[in-house]
Structure formats: C-alpha cells, structure tokens
Automatic annotation (TrEMBL):
Pfam families: Peripla_BP_6
Protein name: Leucine-, isoleucine-, valine-, threonine-, and alanine-binding protein
Gene that produces this protein: braC
Leader sequence segment: 1-23
Keyword Transmembrane: no
Lineage start: Bacteria, Pseudomonadati, Pseudomonadota, Alphaproteobacteria, Rhodobacterales
C-alpha cells in the first residue's frame, strides 16, 4: 500500500514517519511547503505526492511500490537537517528529494553525504553541486548559468553597462556573486550595485540610485520571493525606461500576479519549457514530458503548473529512472545510476550527468523569456 506522509509538525512527523517501514522502496523528501518559501515547496510537495500515486497505480518500480515520507521544513535549515537525519536513521529511506531553498539544501546535503545516501536538490545555487559531492545532485539550472544566459541576451542587444539590485537572502547573494564573477566575459560592466533585505517593502531608494548612475543601459535583479515583485512595481512607479531582467528564481505565473501584469510588461528572464508549454513545437524533445506533467498536475490540483513543481517532477524522474536501471534500491547503486543518467528529458531540460557534472544541464536548457500582455513569450 502506498504511504504518502505530509506533516508540518515535528511530533506528527515522528509518529507518521515510522509507518513507512513496510514499503519495499522508501524515499524521503523535505520541502518548504509552508513559510516564506511556500511558493516553491507547496507545488513541489504536491508534485511528489501525485507522482508516487501515479507510479504505484502503474505497479511501482520493477514490481515494487514506493512509500514517500514527506516532511515540511518551513524553509528552516535547522529543521531540514533534523528531517534529513530522521529520514535516514528512522525512516530508512534510500534517497532524498528536496531542499526548496539553498539554505535547506546545504543542510540536507551535509547529512546525506555523511550517510552516503543520494540527495537530489531542488534549489538553484551553484555551491550545491560545485564542487561535485559524491551523493548530491540537483535539477534546477545554477545561478551562474542564469547569469550567463542573461548576459548572452544583453550582449546581443549591445548592452555594455548595467545596474544590479540583489536580494541579500541565500539565493540573491549567491547569484549576485556569480553574476559579478562572469559579467566581464561578456564585455559588460556593473556600474551600480545595490541590495535589499528579504523583508523590505520598498526599493525606490536603491532603484533611484541606479537610475541616476551614468551610462546604465539595463537593470538585473538577482532574487526570489516577494522582493523581485516589489522591485518590478517600484521600477514602473519610477518610470525607469530601461530593460529589466529578473532571475529564474521568479519564473512562475505567481511573479506576474504579485508584480502586476502592467508593471511586469517587458521583463526578461531565463526560464524553462514548462512556462511556454503551449508554444513548444511538436518535435521538441521536452514536449511529451512537459505536456504530461502539466496535464496531470493541473487536473490533480486545479492550479496552474509552474517551474518549481517541475523541479520536483524532474528529480522524481531522475530518481526512478536510476532505480529502474540499477535494478536495485541500494543507495550506492542508485547513486551510481543517477551519475550515469544520459539524455533524460525533463520539464527543465535534458539531463546528462557524469562524475564531473551532477546537474547535467547546459545553457541550451534555458529559454530566454519575456512577459507580454501578462503571458510568457519566447525571446526570438
């Protein structure tokens, strides 16, 4: 019998987690289904629950059903570490999916590496998989790759001088550093460099400084959560007539809703095929998996599909594909099979891992997108 366990309370998690022991294949997850990162973790949790239900209805993996023990860490790295330990020691899972944020991912991976249990992160920061760690993988593009994709687009438009306004949260700070590290490779100079705290409700002071900086031709906002939406609204209120770029950390319809379609008009960012599912060509290798996930998720939840649930979808695909190929549910065998993943189409891209690459995506997996009329469109 399938057992999918979700909890927001540690005491309840203790009581429920132990019941997973009867499963043939036990996998674990810790995501931020509530709290400030719930816009990431909620669709991830719903996706994992849905996929476990689907695969068990189809007979499981190699004839064995899956039991999912799913904990809600609320975006707290300490809780994520506790849950990771419990998943391994008490729930006896053979692999972990999760880490909605960089902070929670770093906590989980430290436990997973110490215990030699495969972990597939759902967060963006490059330090999760660089340097490569034996048992840690991830599905989203790195923040460094997002910088490179954005700078490629700027370069095509002849933009040579930019302003940056970055969040000071883990994701924002990491992407800010990565962008500054690679920007010179594209002949682009950062002339203004401002920051804001995750709880700030107004960024007009920082944006005004950027607007008044001589030579700035575009603005880049590394960040996720509510901050980029506020930046976008303030940007329009100040009538700044320069291209505005956001990160893949806000690549969802929720960003357009929070910022407002009028304010978000023209915003550019690197995103995934999932956001433009209806625009994919029939010969696009990602189309079958994108369409399948989108249809299933929207029918199951009654809510629009989004990038972040797609990260969980891809993690589950990678994990179950590895277990099938390994013919084993032993952690070491699963790890080896994940590392040998080749040409696996997901909603985020086509994954090909190696001992030197535990992400398996390149820049071609990113689609450069622009918001027009409240909808995502492909930048030609």
């Amino acid at each position: 019998m399938q057992k999918t366990l979700t909890t927001t309370a540690l005491a309840t998690a203790l009581a429920l987690g132990a019941t997973a022991a009867s499963a043939e294949i036990r996998i674990g997850a810790s995501v931020s289904a509530t709290g400030p990162a719930a816009f990431l973790g909620d669709p991830e949790a719903k996706t994992l629950e849905m996929l476990v239900e689907q695969i068990n209805e189809q007979g499981g993996i190699n004839g064995e059903e899956i039991a999912l023990t799913l904990y809600d860490d609320g975006g707290d790295p300490n809780k994520a570490r506790t849950f990771a330990t419990r998943l391994i020691e008490d729930d006896e899972v053979v692999a972990i999916i999760g880490g909605s944020t960089t902070g929670t991912s770093m906590s989980i991976l430290s436990v997973a590496e110490d215990n030699e249990v495969p972990f597939i992160s759902l967060a963006g920061a490059i330090e999760i998989i660089d340097p490569v760690k034996p048992f840690t993988f991830k599905t989203p593009h790195t923040d460094r790759m997002a910088c490179q994709k954005i700078f490629e687009d700027m370069q095509k438009q002849g933009i040579t001088t930019i302003g940056m306004i970055s969040g000071t949260d883990g994701f924002g700070a990491s992407m800010q550093a990565q962008c500054k590290d690679v920007v010179g490779e594209y002949g682009i100079t950062v002339a203004a460099d401002e920051t804001y705290n995750p709880t700030d409700a107004d960024m007009t002071t920082q944006l005004t400084k950027i607007r008044n900086t001589q030579g700035v031709q575009a603005v880049l906002n590394p960040g996720f959560g509510q901050g980029p939406s506020i930046v976008t609204r303030n940007y329009r209120q100040l009538a700044i007539d320069l291209p505005l770029y956001q990160s893949h950390g806000v690549a969802s319809d929720g960003f357009i809703e929070l910022a407002g379609a009028e304010a978000a008009e023209g915003v550019r960012l690197p995103g995934t095929a999932l956001l433009i599912a209806d625009q994919l060509g029939a010969d696009d290798p990602q189309k079958p998996v994108v369409d399948a996930y989108k249809t299933a998720f929207e029918e199951k939840t009654g809510t629009p599909v989004g990038t972040f649930g797609g990260y969980a979808n891809d993690a589950f695909l990678i994990l179950t594909d590895a277990i099938k190929r390994a013919g084993s549910a032993e952690p070491q065998a699963i790890r080896d099979a994940i590392e040998a993943t080749s040409g696996l189409a997901g909603t985020t891209g086509i994954y090909t891992m190696s001992p030197e690459n535990h992400l398996g995506l390149d820049l071609s997996a990113f689609r450069m997108l622009q918001i027009k009329g409240g909808e995502w469109t492909v930048v030609e």
